[in-house]
Amino acid sequence: MLSYWVTPSIGAGPTQLRKPTRGETATRFGVPEANLSRWKKEEREGKFQGLTLEQYRIAGGGRRRKWGVLERALYEKFRYRRASGGIVRRGWFRRVSKELFLQHYPEEAHASFHFSNGWFRRFLSFHQVSLRFVTNTASKLPSDFSDAILNWMRFNRRNSQLRPRNGREPGDIPAAIGRYALANIVNMDQTPVPFEYLEGRTYNQKGEKTIWAQSSQSGWDKRQATIQLTVFADGIPRVKPLVFFRGMGVGATIVTERATYDPRVVVKFNPKAYANSSNMVEWLDEQLIPILEDRPTLLVLDLFRAHKTEEVLDTFSANDIVVSMIPGGCTSLVQPLDVSINRPFKDILRVSGLTFQSKRKRLTAA
Q: Is the distance from CB of 188 to CB of 321 less than 8 angstroms?
């Protein structure tokens, strides 16, 4: 960093370079400007002379590590445990660090190493480790699914090849990816949506043991609908979102409510509030098949049972739709909607829902 600071490397004209400023250097390496000034002063004083490369301060560092061997061994054990899916909390660090101290510093007095708050905080900062919420749990780790994912990708590649027919019938037309146009590579997925977002965390005054959240209606925090999203490889939306509510979809209240639905969304009702085989066939006939233009299509789905009934599979076959079933447990790794879209979509939906409820409360109060 100090070398970068004093070396002309910023364009200052057609043939000239200038030295970066302190602010530009700090921004490039992600460190406070005050640290750069202090390090430059320490370098002039000769503090860094005779140090090995490992003894210099690096990103996330701090003071020289007194128990460097212990910390490197502790960090390696931490990485191995997390790579195998193990939970790591402060107690684990305390126990293992003391074991490693006895192993690597047998000549030192046991009391010379303290698992203090300051040491632990510096260790976490040095190695860029933080306490995080668990977002996914599974009996198998992502690395255990590599064979299943490779086989799934081979299936997709094999079915993307052109399929020439005899001389009396035309074969496939070359497209963006083998026989498929980008507009005909599709991923569809269903995800639950709560009526109200009351779970999770909220900022609150310290010291209170019970954290309350007001529900718009009793039991709404336990009710949910299902929303079905569809994306295309070319990024152009062609199919409306499909929402499933629980019920039969009849009655005066529902008829009145239907008039308020946004025309950009399709709403269906069934007893369990998620898609079944009949809903799947309706969606294919009403929304997907009309926009495929009789071209071969690759449809990526998860292993939900409604996607595999005889009626649904017959509809796929009759319309030259190849179904690519994602292996069980792999949707969070390879399904586009799960990987990139569902979560930000739900975040946007949550903010929109809270905004709507806030406006409704103000109108009611008025």
A: no
Q: Would you say residue 154 lies in a domain? A: yes
- Give the structural domain span for 33: 1-49
Q: Is residue 255 part of a domain?
A: yes
- 335's enclosing H/E stretch is none
Q: What is the reported pLDDT for 60? A: 45
Total domains, the chain: 3
pLDDT tens, position by position, 110-120: 667 888 898 89
Coil, helix or strand at residue 305: helix
Look at residue 177 and give its three-state secondary structure.
Answer: strand
Question: What are the pLDDT digits (tens) for 128-183?
Answer: 888 887 766 666 666 778 889 999 999 999 999 887 765 445 567 778 888 999 99
141 within domain boundaries: no
Strands 321-325 and 297-301: parallel
72 and 38 co-located in one domain? no
Q: Which helix (H) or strand (E) holds 193?
A: strand 185-194
Instruction: Please choose, from the candidates 158, 161, 162, 178, the residue with its C-alpha nearest in 3D space to the C-alpha of residue 170.
Output: 162
DSSP-derived letter for residue 56 is S
The answer to the question of residue 264 being in a domain is yes
Burial of 228 (0-12, 13-18, 19+ CB in 10 A): buried
Answer yes or no: are the C-beta atoms of 335 and 300 closer than 8 Å. Answer: yes
